[in-house]
Hints:
Elements: E1 3-4, E2 17-22, E3 25-29, E4 36-38, E5 41-42, H1 44-51, H2 59-83, E6 88-92, H3 98-105, E7 109-114, H4 117-125, E8 131-133, E9 146-152, H5 161-171, E10 172-182, H6 186-194, E11 209-210, H7 213-223, E12 227-231, H8 241-260, E13 272-277
Parallel strand pairs: 6-7, 6-9, 7-8, 9-10
Antiparallel strand pairs: 1-5, 2-3, 3-4, 4-11, 10-13, 12-13
Amino acid sequence: MEMEQTPCLLCKKDGGTPLHREDAFKMVRCPSCGFIYLNPRPTGGSLFRFYQDYLPEDGMSIDSWKRMMGPIFRRSARLIKRHRDRGKLLDVGTGFGFFLAEMKARGWEAEGVEISRRAIDYARDVLKLTVHPGPLEDIAFRGNGFDVVTAFYVIEHLPDPAGFVSECYRILKPRGLLLLRYPHTTPIKNMLRLLGIKNRLYDLPAHLSDFSPGTIQACLERAGFKRCRHLVGGCTVPEGTGKRLAASLFGGLAEALFFVGRGKVLLPGVSKTVLAYKGE
């Protein structure tokens, strides 16, 4: 895998301070804006080749992926329904297309973007969905074309997250909705380091950055989004009893704190959903 040095992915300043290592890979914190990102990182060509084998290929593993993400997809569909009942939706990094299938069943005109050839073939051939080979910025959708754009666990994989968010803003209609789901891993990494527990929770080099509610808000505002709503948004159901119990425990705790705190308490370390609205 070819590697390259990079400035901060948000503010473009050099000089990241080392924060965490996983094998030969290093996450750093930008001293200017506080953003956490992988540096050095794989080149664009290396990333594209890496993602051709990133998703599973056997039927059992694909079904497990569907079960794991199902609660998040259904929760997100209900959130979108509060915004509007029907419309045109684009799901970026759609994977095998399970969220697209969910939204089509709810009456939406839904299409996706994906870079994994394996996932594209499954979504097209098995689920009969419309999926464009990505990345998003290479497709050149017309501006103001979608009512909703979604991306589940995508933004942390991107070499230019700020550019991605700006492109989402451009292709959304006025008053359109962007729904992003992202991990927030650094608080857990910090805690486990204090306890002397080794781990690979960043999933390096797949994740090129680690957003917090503050940095995701800053990224969205720079792109032009005026109103953002931060949520816990449910939790995944991973395979394995231990992982499933941990996800349920921390996900339930996060939801309880969010409720008791009247939507103002977001438990550090758990994945989060943000809803961002484009103005008139």
